[in-house]
Design goal:
Rossmann fold; globular; alpha/beta; single chain
Length: 270
């Protein structure tokens, strides 16, 4: 996309973003639509893993309440977090205060909530979304959908905050970025203006607000995007660990997600 095209797209996105942010009214509560999971995973090994996760993460209730896609995606995120587990409990992390940045509809809230509770007592889990009033084909907003997951979860420690993460001042020790915008084209395609593109500031803010001990979990779409991610972290002097590509039998994306961890331990070199 050329420079002029980007500028024109950005101006259009800014106008649309302004309108949808002001027209934040709800058409009514969103209801989660359950679906039968019978024969969802024909492969016996995958089925066994599903049953193991349902038991380990107290996920039987969500098995009944979620639709097929939501259920598969939540299993995917449970497995992704399980992959990170050896790094997610640095010494001294006794209680979890978590934030998820760029939560969209917060459809993976069940996975985050139940997974974190297997690590340590969960004090807080916030989803922060800059574009919370984006409307979907149903007419409902991302905020409306997030409220549906929160109602089903029914936990006072979870909340969805429609705001700019740069304005988020609550301390945290676990922070997730699932597919952050690290190049301009995906941001424009999503419908945001270029003036909202400042990945270095976002990651600097996240690292500065991250308690010690604490962990940042980042996923990027493909190896090239992860390379951009690492260049941003390097420019900030933030050391990271590359866990490489992640794939799961529960759900397959067009490109594997690449995992990056930033661990803040308070020790030298971290």
């Amino acid at each position: 996309m050329g420079t002029l095209d980007k500028r024109l797209r950005s101006l259009l996105n800014k106008a649309r973003f302004t309108v949808r942010s002001r027209l934040s009214f709800s058409l009514g509560p969103v209801r989660l639509k359950a679906a039968s999971k019978e024969d969802l995973f024909p492969d016996l090994s995958v089925r066994r893993r599903e049953l193991e996760y349902r038991e380990r993460y107290d996920f039987a209730g969500w098995h009944k309440r979620l639709g097929l896609l939501d259920y598969r995606l939540n299993l995917y995120f449970l497995e992704l977090l399980q992959t990170c587990r050896p790094h997610l409990a640095p010494p001294g992390l006794e209680r979890i205060r978590a934030v998820d940045v760029g939560s969209r509809t917060f459809y993976y809230l069940p996975a985050l909530f139940h997974y974190y509770r297997t690590l340590a007592p969960l004090d807080r889990l916030h989803g922060v979304e800059f574009d919370a009033y984006r409307r979907y084909r149903t007419g409902s907003t991302a905020y409306d959908y997030a409220q549906a997951y929160l109602r089903e979860l029914a936990s006072p420690c979870a909340a969805y905050l429609p705001m700019d993460f740069l304005e988020y001042r609550v301390p945290f020790n676990v922070c997730t970025f699932f597919l952050p915008f690290v190049t301009e084209d995906p941001l424009l395609h999503w419908g945001l203006p270029l003036e909202s593109f400042h990945p270095a500031r976002l990651f600097e803010h996240a690292y500065n607000r991250l308690e010690s001990p604490g962990v940042l979990i980042i996923t990027n779409k493909g190896e090239e995007e992860q390379a951009h991610q690492h260049r941003i972290l390097d420019s900030l002097g933030i050391r990271c660990r590359n866990l490489g590509p992640f794939e799961s039998p529960f759900y397959a994306y067009d490109l594997p997600r690449y995992l990056t961890l930033v661990i803040k331990s308070g020790t030298a070199g971290e």
